[in-house]
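hiii, so i know i said id send this last week but things got crazy w the move. better late than never?? heres the sequnce for the chain we talked about at the cafe, plus the structure i predicted for it. fair warning i was half asleep when i ran it
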Amino acid sequence: MEFEQSETTFALLDLPTLPLLHTLSFLPHSSLLPLAASCKFLHATVHNSSNLWRRLTLLPSMLILPTTTQSFITVLRKHGGSVRAVKVKFTEERGMLENLQQLLAFLAASCPSLVHISLPYLTAFNHPPTNQLRLLVNSFPNLRSLTIKMYDSTSKGLEQLANLSSLENLHLVFTNDRKSQEKLKVELLHKL
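okay and structure toks below
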């Protein structure tokens, strides 16, 4: 006895606009670009909806390959004004420190409305020549939320965080000890 199973397929393009945009909002931005390249309708939908570009998840290594870098710069030029939150993922690739610094510079130039940043690490060393913490504080004065998952507590300059007057949430994970955490507490309380 054979049973016939009927498969029902539902075309993405058959969705009304609001459910379509809601569905697309679950995709990472890295999937939006190939989707936009699939047809004119999806290209227009993806690139005309600023809500789809509010959150970016990035890898600093994306700046290593020229084609990836160019694609990223194009996306930031087009949608940088809509970006509100950026999460940078950790990788153990060579040159990550320099790439993170370059990534922060790109974001600073392209995303004026950025208010939430999550970074895998950050240092306040002056090597490479630009202090990443100073770059972050000077570039994003309207930050409301900052997460740094690994902060080198031997770095100087934590007092710079007090310049982020809009900061509501700060999450720092130190790579050191209780002494470093006390140092941060004293620095921030002194500025308040």
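btw The first strand starts at residue 55 and ends at 58. thought thatd interest u
miss u guys!!
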